[in-house]
Amino acid sequence: xxxxxxxxxxxxxxxxxxxxxxxxxxxxxxxxxxxxxxxxxxxxxxxxxxxxxxxxxxxxxxxxxxxxxxxxxxxx
Length: 76
What we know:
The chain has helices spanning 7-11, 26-39, 55-75, and strands at 14-20, 43-49. It has 76 residues and is α+β, with helices and mostly antiparallel strands. The chain has a two-stranded parallel ribbon. The longest helix has 21 residues, at 55-75.
């Protein structure tokens, strides 16, 4: 699906990949981050933090994402 998208529009996206260092999907996320970087589909950052695939990790992570979105909106 991402290969069929308009590359110009994708390059305008800001993507944030967050994953815990104990997440069972860590390997797959690293592969996906490498793919995004090689294809230059979007501006993105990939962060690995302490945690696993659970609500505790995602509750903390979503707070950070919401704060970033609010900051971006306030800059407009």
